[in-house]
């Protein structure tokens, strides 16, 4: 187990972003799904140690991050790509990723090679000495991924990493995620369920600060399979409306089914009493 949260509540003034959730993450790629405002970014920011919980406990890489020294030590072993990532536009790709390596207190002798490897892994080797401000939006996003992986993190946290990537880059990026996830814990928040289907072994679906679903990607897809009836497996004869109402592919249908089940439970009298 690399990361865990226990009874985690996160508040933004009067808004409850996460409402007493329990989650554990081990080696592999975990997808974090949920509608806008579900709490994905709030969870990633707590795991990245940049935001503090209102209540609850966070365990990261064997340490309790409530303690300052533990937190500093954990940060050196983390990789984090925020949803909006700040960079110095005048820096070249090499300079920027080296700067992050320095912030993470990597051994100076290891930095040049680690930077080249990270930049190569995101497919930007031919742009390494180009200024970040000269790159396209998708390339800047890839620089963001490079800075997150430069220290070969044991825990990699990516908030909407595929936003702005074109389809070919997304396919390459998913392969990179699977590669990193073979030895590390990767938690990736996304709105693109097809990224989850392609790259993630496990899925956590958040809804209004609660866990609506937790399981394997296959479990989620299975939820979208109706048991009986003419819409059970939309064949060539199924109407477009019947298919698109709950999703166009197995994972979208699973996502919709899990959300609807969670909402129905929350609206039921026993749920309303919580
Ligand atoms: N800085 C803030 N100030 C006030 N409320 C906030 C702040 N950040 C988040 N919230 C609220 O907390 C809740 C959870 O937001 P969060 O950004 O974690 O969700 P999300 O699942 O990442 O959403 P999205 O998919 O839109 O990025 C939402 O109701 C949001 O409006």
UniProtKB/TrEMBL annotation:
Residues 220-252 are annotated as: Disordered. GO terms for molecular function: ATP binding; ATP hydrolysis activity. It comes from Streptomyces paludis. Belongs to the ABC transporter superfamily. The keyword Nucleotide-binding applies. This is ABC transporter ATP-binding protein. SUPFAM superfamilies: P-loop containing nucleoside triphosphate hydrolases. Keywords: ATP-binding, Nucleotide-binding, Transport. It holds the Pfam family ABC_tran. InterPro entries: AAA+_ATPase, ABC_transporter-like_ATP-bd, P-loop_NTPase. The keyword Mitochondrion does not apply. Residues 3-233 form the ABC transporter domain.
């Amino acid at each position: 187990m690399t990361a865990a949260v226990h009874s985690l509540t996160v508040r933004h003034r009067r808004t409850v972003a996460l409402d007493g959730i329990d989650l554990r993450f081990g080696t592999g790629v975990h997808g974090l799904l949920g509608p806008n405002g579900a709490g994905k970014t709030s969870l990633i920011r707590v795991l990245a140690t940049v935001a503090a919980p209102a209540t609850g406990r966070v365990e990261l890489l064997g340490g309790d991050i409530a303690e300052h020294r533990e937190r500093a030590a954990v940060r050196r072993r983390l990789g984090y790509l925020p949803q909006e990532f700040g960079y110095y536009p005048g820096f070249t790709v090499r300079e920027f990723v080296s700067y992050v390596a320095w912030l993470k207190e990597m051994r100076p002798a290891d930095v040049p090679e680690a930077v080249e490897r990270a930049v190569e892994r995101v497919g930007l080797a031919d742009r390494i000495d180009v200024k970040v401000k000269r790159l396209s939006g998708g390339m800047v996003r890839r620089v963001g991924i490079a800075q997150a992986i430069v220290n070969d993190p044991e825990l990699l946290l990516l908030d909407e990493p595929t936003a702005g990537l074109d389809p070919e880059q997304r396919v390459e990026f998913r392969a990179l995620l699977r590669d990193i996830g073979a030895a590390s814990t990767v938690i990736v928040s996304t709105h693109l369920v097809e990224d989850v289907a392609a790259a993630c072994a496990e899925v956590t679906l958040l809804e209004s600060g609660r866990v609506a679903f937790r399981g394997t990607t296959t479990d989620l897809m299975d939820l979208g399979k109706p048991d009986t009836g003419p819409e059970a497996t939309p064949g060539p004869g199924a109407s477009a409306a019947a298919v698109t109402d709950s999703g166009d592919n197995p994972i979208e249908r699973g996502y919709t089914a899990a959300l609807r089940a969670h909402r129905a439970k929350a609206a039921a009298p026993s749920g309303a009493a919580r």
